[in-house]
Amino acid sequence: DQQVKQNSPSLSVQEGRISILNCDYTNSMFDYFLWYKKYPAEGPTFLISISSIKDKNEDGRFTVFLNKSAKHLSLHIVPSQPGDSAVYFCAASRGGSQGNLIFGKGTKLSVKP
Amino acid sequence: DVKVTQSSRYLVKRTGEKVFLECVQDMDHENMFWYRQDPGLGLRLIYFSYDVKMKEKGDIPEGYSVSREKKERFSLILESASTNQTSMYLCATAGGGLLAKNIQYFGAGTRLSVL
Question: What share of chain B is helix, strand, coil (3-state, %, to 5)?
């Protein structure tokens, strides 16, 4: 069963507008959440993260929101730029000393000029 | 900057061959991971290691083994490659510490084709 779900395989947004990528999880024991960005033929790169004790974390154009009661997090990109076009993966930490991550299936974001 | 180097970007192998995928990191990280990425399936953990000579199975270890003889190097081994192991393989590392352990840094990936 999928413990981390990204229900939208793709998203298309106009340049300058807001992109909102969503992620749901099932395990209330997850204590840390991350977003990664991946371009074709490259490895994923870490984008932004949030601890379960917070509900918001902001880094420049990127903001992650966490709603623990709904087991939902979202990544907001404002304003969206064509260079943001990539696959975005949501990940949750299983806890423990090794920090293993469970990844969602990804959402492909296309930002149109 | 963390550097995670995977020895090959592209590999073509024949069914039944033994395949070695190598990963080297330069950040003295304790934790290293091997994933495969397939369309529509996201990243799935194959094996991980939290110390030299230590290894743990991930979610899909069948058909794979790993080796970690030195802290900086983590190898993924396909004992007898099969066509269903055609995939993008990604190595990642993470440091120790309460928060650092959660952030994994990835190599560029190896696209393996098994014919």
Answer: 5, 55, 40
